[in-house]
Amino acid sequence: MLEVEATADMLLMTQPFTAHVATDEPVEVVLVKAVLSGERDRFARLYEMYAPLVHGILLARVPRGEVDDLVQDIFLHALRKLHTLRDATAFGPWIAMIARNRAMDFYRGSRETVEVTEQMAIERPPNRTAKEILDLICRLPDAYRETLVLRFVEGMTGPEIAARTGLTPASVRVNLHRGVKLLREKIGATTV
Amino acid sequence: MKDREMKDYYLWDRSGEPDAEVQELEEILGTLRYQPQLLEIPRNIQFERRRSFFPAMAIAAAIALAAVLLGLWFSFNRRQAPAFDAKHDKQIDQHLNSPQPLISPDPTRVEVAVDPQPRAIQKHSTAPRNLLASNQSRRSVIRQPVLTPKELAEKEQVLVALRLVSAKLNLAQRKTQGTPQLNSIRNQHKMG
Predict the structure, then answer these.
(1) How many helices and strands, by DSSP H and E, does chain A display?
(2) Chain A residues touching residue B18 (CB < 8 angstroms)
(3) How far is the C-alpha of B3 from the C-alpha of A71, rounded, in Å?
(4) Are the Cβ atoms of B11 and A133 closer than 8 angstroms?
(5) Is the reported ipTM for this assembly greater than 0.85?
(6) Where are chain B's structural domains?
(7) Please, what are the domains in chain A?
């Protein structure tokens, strides 16, 4: 654990690494406690660990162009509200829930539509195949599409998804298998 | 069947035999993966801290403790001081100043003797009057008058006379209302 923190501090160059007493607490707990005690820069490590999760959850729900900004917003919101987190070990499920709620708010609010310009098209070269498959995934039920995006887009394994989202491994396994099965059917239907 | 299970393992945690279809999905959708970005934490961000109710609770407890101690102090002081009621003192004063009836040898006359020089009123000036309203339970002691044998005989006569009058009144009331007499034994011979 100490090595992980030391590496994180060295890579992020946030602040000189201070030796902590070796405990059995998960990294998230140590980091959350540090942030709450005033070491705000430690939040960068939490961001680094959980940004792919939030990115995947948003990608399964909102347009791609909005995802990056929303990821930043969600983490800033989480920083402000970190004191409301009762169980530091549940940081992953907590921020996943914030991301899901923010994605719902995105469609609920009267947000102005973003016009796709030529400049944006140059910045983001369209990968038609990836976009098409992502669209197909986004038509699946919520539980399946989130798990599939985290597995195929973010490259997480089933156990990692379970650990980060707070779902049981059995649920993740079921979601993966049923989701892949449905996706195969949809891909088959579109190619015919 | 076994081949299918091996491919499921790959879908679950990338162990076992790779599934070509899953690998293709990983490659295509991997292009949409989260690209690490620095989290820009504004310096003026409102970092909400956990609200601590300890100071407020400590103040409230101190106030409550002071109130209890004050109450105990008052209670203790009141017990130590002699409890003379203002009303009681007033009654004493009136009794001392009022003219006292004197019983004269002639029973038809009642003489009232007025003291030409009113007696000096002795007040307990040393002990302070306790004018605070008190809710102490007053124990009223009813003293039975001590009667002489003659007075007892007179009392007995009065009671006998009262009983006689009461019996006569009851009889008169029954006659006027037409209610049967209590002693109805005289009608029993007709029934037999």
Answers:
(1) 10, 0
(2) none
(3) 39
(4) no
(5) no
(6) 2-27
(7) 1-124 (1.10.1740.10), 126-192 (1.10.10.10)
